[in-house]
Predict the 3D structure of the following.
Amino acid sequence: MSEPRNATIAYPGGLRARWRWGGSGSAKQVFALTEAGGSLVDLGTVVASDPDALCRAELHVEGPRGAWTARFASLIHDEPRALHWDTAGLLVVAYGFHTYGIEVATGERRWDHRSASPIIALLGSSRLAHVVVQAEIETFAIEPDGTVAWRIAHSDVVTGAELVGGRLVVTGFDGQVRALDPSTGRAAD
């Protein structure tokens, strides 16, 4: 079994985060170096009743309002990603098929959403009232309370997504590029 991977990331708002994640059955190795301080929330059971048999990830956050640790599970080996949604007071986390709205101050889950396919990107902007979640076969926008603002399906697997010049630019596996309005999900003019 390979060693768990690590990353240290600074998010806006004075948040310092340490990620640690590994493949199926690696929970003991991933959690062996759990940092002390703050609360611990295990969200693995959102994905499965026995989350330690799956891929696991741990996120430890320290910031101006305290420290906390959250644990996640995934059906696939994936690199976790997050963005700080300061106006909503959330750290939005994507891991595998799931997206979570985590309270920045406490680490408590405000909401979670399961996609039909693996998530490949999280996108946010101060100009949007929601975050955009890009999965392999769908794009959707999530409001601060966890409701889905809009959702679109794709006819081809999406391999990349970026916010460029006020547009959501989505690249398909076939190389085709589409521009969408990130506010509505409709084709951009």
About this structure: Residues 27-31 form the longest helix (5 residues). The helical segments are 27-31. The chain has a mean pLDDT of 95. The CA atoms of residues 83 and 119 lie 14 Å apart.
